[in-house]
Amino acid sequence: MAHSDRPNPETVILENGDLAATAEQVIAAIEAQGMMHETQVHQPLYTVEEAKQVNYDKPGVHTKNLFLRNKKGRMFLLVVEQDQHINLKGLRDQLELTGGQLSFASTERLLTYLGVVPGSVSPLAVINDHSNKVQVYIEAALLEQEHIYLHPCRNTHTTRMRCDDLISLLDSWNHDVIRVDFR
């Protein structure tokens, strides 16, 4: 999908008929929990390679986020370190999933359940998954770091926050995180 062909993120309608959360709403939700964060505004970033070109002056781990589904239609968000190689054929067994092979979910599913356009996927997008249809998996090594960089539902913003705060925030949105060890 060409960047110009992507849906307007400001008009994304969720499964329940609500508008998807904006970056400002995600940031407000972080602040409402009393969590510290720093958010940088930049040009749209569609790939890990583009994100590597942005100067982030504080330490923190950068991620690659894969929105996946199995043949039975269950959806999964896999969050790994930006340079982690993922073999989808072996991932199903590693995650001990049933329901057929994993594949990338469609843009339509991404819009409906996470409320983001391609290039904006991150665990913060589960703010939009009110029906808890997306299971979140995060690489265990990421969570050993102090800080993590994530898009707050828009690829024009990058938010740095504490990893333990991310887990608490997802929990407050009724999303348990399953840790995955790729070592």
UniProtKB/TrEMBL annotation:
Pfam families to which the protein is assigned, alphabetical: tRNA_edit
Protein keywords: Aminoacyl-tRNA synthetase, Ligase
UniProt xrefs under SUPFAM superfamilies: YbaK/ProRS associated domain
One of the record's GO molecular function terms: aminoacyl-tRNA ligase activity
Keyword rRNA processing: no
Residue ranges constituting the YbaK/aminoacyl-tRNA synthetase-associated domain according to the UniProt record: 42-168
Family according to the record: Belongs to the PRORSD1 family.
Protein name: Prolyl-tRNA synthetase associated domain-containing protein
The organism of origin for this protein: Leucothrix pacifica
